[in-house]
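We store sequence, tokenised fold; for instance:
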Amino acid sequence: MTMVEILCPHCEEEIELDDDAVGEFSCPYCDGEFEWGEPEEEEADLDFGDFNEVHSGSTGLIYKPAMLAFTLVMVIITVVGLNSGSWYGASVTMEGGDLEGEINYDFGLAEAEFSSSVSYREGDTTQSSNIFGYEDMEKESLEYLLLDWNEGEDCEAPWANYDCEEVADMVEEAQMLADWWGDWDSSGSLLKFFLIMSLIFFIIILISKILLLLDEKGNMKLPANLIEVLNKWDNVSTFVTGILLLIGCVIYAIMMPGEMDGYAFWWSHDAGADVSAGMGMIWWTTLVLSIGYFSASIRGLVSDFN
């Protein structure tokens, strides 16, 4: 083993030390203490060792920025969902018979949009579009129930020219129609509630993730106890919010009334009419992303509990 000669910083006497000696030493001449050598840097602990010890939820350099970007995507998709009118859609295509053309229905959270392009046997073609608010349509449907009529032999005006049984059927259909629009209103309002709650949590999660990432990169310094709290909140809330949005999508699919024979999809009774209906693209996108979001958050939860 090779030796190195140094001068004592106190008495300037020559002292021999091992060339790889590191630490505190005492001079044999004056008993003065001094430090010599530099410890080898540990690459893993140099940059991220302390951070990984304090950040109990940290799970790697790629995971945290990826989840930050994922959260931003969830914020965007939730905002789009709140303004989308295509949570459920239906299309009626008619070929042959008296009518030819296509009719489309798009159902949003509070209203439905109707558009059609129909050609008649005589050669005339009509195009139309309209937007129906769920609450307005429910009230309009209930107007039939407010008209006075009796079940006697003669119906009162304005039903004097109708058979009373026909009037009773019309009133029953009006009630069914009102309930149908009411179900759309209820399911849309509930989904809107889940979307708003999820959006609030996503924004809070996004802020906490940005703060943790800035602290990790050294752009700002957070107290250790605050970092620990933010990590626990971040991991748990990410998991819970993803499930919350998923539950909202599932409940919407269960509660929405879908097709109603005799009204919204009456064209399906015509010869040659083909009806296709199903959940809209925004519903499928939100469902898949919410599943992916809470699934990805499991890694942070596992790290936190460990």
The CA atoms of residues 184 and 294 lie 28 Å apart.
